[in-house]
Specification:
The chain has helices spanning about 10-25, 35-45, 60-70, 85-95, 105-120, 165-175, 180-190, 200-210, and strands at about 5, 25-30, 50, 75-80, 95-100, 135-140, 145, 150-155, 155-160, 180, 220, 225-230. It is an alpha/beta fold. Helix 1 crosses helix 5, helix 4 (about 85-95) crosses helix 8 (about 200-210) and helix 6 (about 165-175) packs across helix 8 (about 200-210). It is elongated.
Length: about 230
């Protein structure tokens, strides 16, 4: 079904993932460190990458940065730590999902299927829940978003965000003044019922607020519910 690159310096972890992936019908290629993973990605194409953070030669974050220069292949990051820094750093360099060790191989395969289903069903240029040809301007044009072209401008200057930040921002913007639960946002923006906790969403909200600067005030936290993009 899918060709998966599994990158981890622990052969036992690679073996476990390979066992479950091949059982699901996937093809697996292994790499023992980040450097090997980057070299493989320069020569071959993969449908998805599962990669550890702490590895010799080149860590997962650095490897992801190099891979993102040549490919937008979905990446699931593995980590023995569940610290916020790792999640933020991972999403900033462009990973698609984050799994903390020890993990359930079955859950990991469900995440693989969910990510690939979304990649195949959603064109790269489209945004979930957003109508085409939509341009939104707030604060007399101080904040301008072209949802079709995936462009965001703050005070006339174009800003860069990660692909998932764009998706989240445009979804919030297209549903402004509506209370959106965490479950709703995860389902619509990530495209599946999230198997872990809501920290992935909260981390992306934090990154999005950082990108929006003074205009982050539009994103309102609803305690115990989720978020709302509120025109004030």
């Amino acid at each position: 079904m899918y060709h998966i690159l599994v990158v981890d310096d622990e052969s036992r972890i690679r073996s476990i993932i390979r066992k479950y992936a091949e059982f699901e019908g996937h093809q697996v290629t292994e790499a023992a460190d980040g450097m090997e993973a980057v070299l493989l990605c320069r020569k071959n194409e993969y449908d998805l990458i599962i990669m550890d953070i702490m590895m010799p030669e080149l860590d997962g974050f650095s490897a992801c940065r190099e891979i993102r220069k040549i490919s937008q292949t979905p990446i699931i990051m593995l980590s023995a730590r569940g610290e916020e820094y790792d999640r933020i750093n991972g999403f900033e360099v462009g990973i698609d999902d984050y799994v903390v060790k020890p993990f359930s191989p079955k859950e990991l395969m469900l995440r693989v299927d969910a990510i690939m289903k979304r990649v195949k069903s959603t064109p790269q240029s489209s945004v979930p829940g957003v109508k085409p040809n939509v341009i939104v301007e707030l604060d007399n044009g101080g904040l301008r978003a072209d949802m079709t072209a995936r462009l965001v401008f703050i005070d006339g200057e174009r800003i860069e965000m990660s692909p998932k930040e764009y998706d989240l921002f445009f979804y919030l913007l297209s549903n402004r003044n509506i209370a959106l639960s965490r479950e709703k946002l995860l389902s619509e923006v990530w495209g599946y019922d999230f198997f872990g906790d809501a920290r992935t969403l909260d981390t992306h909200i934090k990154l999005l607020r950082k990108s929006l600067g003074k205009y982050s005030r539009y994103i309102v936290t609803l305690r115990g519910v989720g978020y709302r993009f509120e025109e004030v």
